[in-house]
Specification:
alpha+beta, six-stranded mixed beta sheet, 18 helices, 13% strand
């Protein structure tokens, strides 16, 4: 029998979780059968004629459930599972590609093209002037610069045309490394460039590809992959990362890398390593926000859930939380304005601004999402701030009122 590499994508485990219990059981049985014999003898393979990727096939699970696989002469990749029509529609809008710059294997969503149809004008009418188009975020970047961050070739034009109101929606259609890099660029950061694979390198071995694809060596490994959510795999330490976890450092150390290279996983394992090496120590693992801290706590639990005493000695907290603790220890409990206090002050200030018609709720959200997080204290800084995530566009005149 010809040896075939078996892989599973994060999109498969995510779609599997949406099925009913009986449907999941049947889909897992089919997945195990494919692991035992990737050639699929005895299974109902059907080539997807409408798919842009010629290697997409469907595998019959039951009367209505289909598994979408990417099959070549040397590999089989479990990609997606759903009801018949939904599974076919998903596959027809995607293709597997090797990125031309980074060399990473990517699942690329097909860009839908819409052609404008000319409509003859029969009636003369006067229309108000069109509003000035919003400034694009990435129009000044070259194709080469955007490709270096992992943006698929097919999406370059859309990325260059997007503005801050459309960025979040656009990011949902891009590979994770490209989306994260664009969000960082849009907020004034400079993302680290992803690694560039060698000419003959395996595209699935690229760090960005390993975020979404896993090699299944045997049935037991596939069973573990299907038993746990995908985030269980995200705390696994790659052998190449272990040196940074177990190394002895003489002082502060900076570990840098592009999105998806495993910096968070290294930090988690480093905290656990230090706790194991120093049985009487307390370890602090900090991050920038409460949301990220909560996510790290969840990952830490998955890593050491069988060692509760060890977990008790690792404290995961946001920088704000740490600051509040230190303030409380040195000066007493801080007196912080509540949301109601801030809302009342904003409402009072708004009444004193002629022509301001924004609701108190909108003004409070603007404070919480833009002004306060970025510590904007001048008109110029607020005028130039990028309002990512805010759905209402504000022209400069309205910003000046605010």
């Amino acid at each position: 029998m010809v040896r075939m590499d078996s892989r599973i994508a994060d999109t498969f485990t995510t779609s599997l979780a949406r099925l009913t219990g009986e449907e999941q059981k049947a889909a897992k049985t089919t997945a195990f059968d494919l692991q035992l014999d990737p050639t699929g003898k005895g299974l109902g393979f059907h080539k997807l004629d409408k798919a842009k990727d010629p290697n997409f096939w469907s595998v019959r699970v039951s009367r209505d459930i289909r598994v979408i696989v990417h099959k070549t002469s040397g590999s089989l990749l479990l990609y997606y599972v759903d009801h018949h029509d939904k599974a076919y529609a998903w596959a027809e809008r995607r293709k597997l590609e090797t990125h031309p710059t980074t060399g990473a294997a990517q699942l690329v969503e097909i860009r839908e093209r819409v052609e404008e149809i000319y409509v003859p004008k029969y009636v003369e009418a006067v229309f108000p002037a069109k509003p000035k188009p919003a400034a694009t975020l990435f129009g000044h970047y070259s194709d080469e610069q955007l490709l270096a961050y992992g943006v698929p070739t097919e999406w370059l034009a859309d990325v260059k045309a997007t503005d801050e109101d459309a960025l979040l929606a656009l990011a949902d259609h891009l590979p994770s490394e490209a989306a994260e890099a664009l969000l960082e660029l849009a907020t004034g950061g400079t993302p680290a460039l992803p690694a560039v694979a060698g000419q003959d390198a395996d595209p699935f071995a690229h760090p960005d590809a390993q975020r979404r694809f896993r090699v299944m060596a045997d049935v037991e490994e596939l069973q573990r992959a299907l038993q746990f959510p995908w985030d269980k795999w995200t705390v696994l330490l790659h052998p190449a990362q272990r040196q940074w976890v177990e190394r002895d450092y003489n002082g502060p150390t900076r570990v840098s890398g592009s999105a998806g290279t495993g910096k968070t996983v290294v930090a988690l394992h480093r905290a656990v390593h230090l706790a194991r090496q120093n049985e009487d120590s307390l370890i602090l693992l900090s991050t920038f926000s409460d949301t990220l801290a909560n996510a790290l706590r969840g990952q830490l639990f998955r890593l050491v859930y069988q060692q509760p005493k060890l977990a008790e000695r690792i404290d995961v907290a946001s920088m704000d939380d740490i600051a509040l603790r230190l303030y409380d220890r040195a000066l007493g409990k801080p007196k912080l304005a509540t949301c109601d206090d801030i809302s009342s002050l904003i409402a009072k200030a708004a009444k004193e601004v002629p022509g301001l018609r924004s609701s108190t709720g909108f003004l409070l959200a603007e404070w919480e999402d833009v002004v306060d997080p970025w510590q904007l204290q001048t008109w110029e800084s607020y005028r130039d701030a990028k309002r990512l995530g805010r759905k209402t566009r504000l022209p400069e005149a309205q910003r000046q009122l605010l």
